[in-house]
Each structure stands twice: as C-alpha cells, then as structure tokens.
Amino acid sequence: MADKAKAFRAAFPHTLPILAGFTFLGIAYGVLMQSKGFSWPWTLLMSTTIFAGSMEFVTVGLLAGNFQPIYAYCLALMVNARHLFYGLSMLEKYKGAGWKKFYLIFGMCDESFSINCSVDPPEGVDAGWFRFFVTLLNHCYWIAGSMLGSLAGSFVPFDTTGIDFAMTGLFIVIFMNQWFSCRDHRPALVGLGASVLCLVVFPTDYFILPAMVLILMMLTFFRKKLDPASHMEEPAK
C-alpha cells in the first residue's frame, strides 16, 4: 500500500497540466452530448469506454446521424492510427507491469503517452504503478470534465452553437505550434492540400477518411524527399 501511495504522489504533479486541459475540453464534450440529446449516463459510458478525445467528439456526430458501422470503424482506425506507433515505443517500458499492462494499453491517450514516455519515475517508486496512476488520473480528469459539462448542459440552458468547435480549435492551436516550431513546412502543406482537395471532391460529411488516406499515401510516397535523413548513406567503416 505504501508503494502505491508513493507512486500516486509522484505521478500526480505531472498530470496537473492535463487536469486543466481535460477539464475544459471535457466540459465542452459533455455539453455537446447533452445538446445532441444524450443524457449523462451516455456521456459517462462514452467517456469511460472510448477515452479518445478527438474520436469522442467525432462519435457524437456519427451517433446523431445515420450510423454507418463500417465508416465509423475505418474513421476510428485512421484517427487513432498513431496509437499503433505509441504502443510499439512503449513495449519495453510496459514490460513487467503485470495486470496493469492491460489498463495502460487501454488508457494510452496522447497526454498519458507523453508523460509515460518522457518521465522516469523517481528513485524508489515502482515504475508500473507510477505509469498506472498517470494514466488513471488523466482518465478520471476526462470523465469528471465531461460529467460536469453534461450536468451543466442539463440544468443551465444556454446556446451551444459552435461548442463542437472546441476540439477543432485545439487541433488548430497544435498545428500552429508545430508550424512555428518546424522549419520544414512541406508535410503540413501536404496535409492541408490533400484535405482541401478531398473537401472539394467528396461530400462534407465524408471527406475526412479519404483525406487521411491520401495524406498517408502522399507522405509515404514522398518520404525520402521530405526526410532526407531517412535515405542518407551510412559512412564507410
């Protein structure tokens, strides 16, 4: 028990920035769910079982419209494909975690991955419990925020027009941060160009999936030109 308490105390400070972000995003998500006719039990179920912020926002629209399972599956796979690479990079760190490994895999969102990948537990703190509490705390923050939003949306009437833009706004901020922090803007321009093209060619409600496929194909095809280091010859020994 002492080991768990020590791991919790070590993990908690690293999750405080996530607490602030997840609370406000979760509130926006909860209000959006309420505005689409989904009461708090649905919000609790979705936040607990999906725990993929961007996909949860997308799922609201999928459930509110004509639900298409195959399209929803493919879209979820493309939106969360990055987690495949997250998982590969965490194989060594999660080794020996025992039963906690199953929850660590399930709860590995972007924020939990960032902390667990870059932060080493303090000396004397069990690594498995440290990463478990990082993941659990972030999960709880998201659930709490979404429930606050759902309850606020049911008791406090206000105009929810545009609230589904919250996740879009977050991605715009992330995109701008990456744009200003990187010298090479070609990958970003490829993504923008492919998205605009698919938006013109396909209906507005269905352009995301072909856009992501096109971006993946283009980045793969032009990988050597976009990343010169990937095909540099090794120096002679």
What features would you describe in this structure?
There is one protein chain. Helix 1 (2-35) packs parallel to helix 3 (53-64), helix 1 (2-35) runs parallel beside helix 9 and helix 11 runs antiparallel to helix 12. It contains 13 helices and no strands. The chain is mostly helical. The protein has two domains: 2-161, no CATH class; 182-229, no CATH class.
Give a quick rundown of the structure.
This protein is an all-alpha fold. The protein contains 13 helices and no strands.
The helix content is over 70%
Q: What kind of assembly state do the chains in view correspond to?
A: single chain
- Written as H for each helix and E for each strand, in order along the chain, the element string is HHHHHHHHHHHHH
Look at the structure and give the mean pLDDT: 81
> Tally of extended strands?
0
**Alpha-beta classification:** mainly alpha
Estimated share of beta-strand residues: under 5%
Helical stretch count? 13
Please tell me the total number of domains: 2
Main β sheet profile: none
* Amino-to-carboxy terminus distance: 54 Å
**Shape type:** globular
Q: What Rg, in angstroms, do the CA atoms define?
A: 20 Å
Low-confidence runs = 230-237
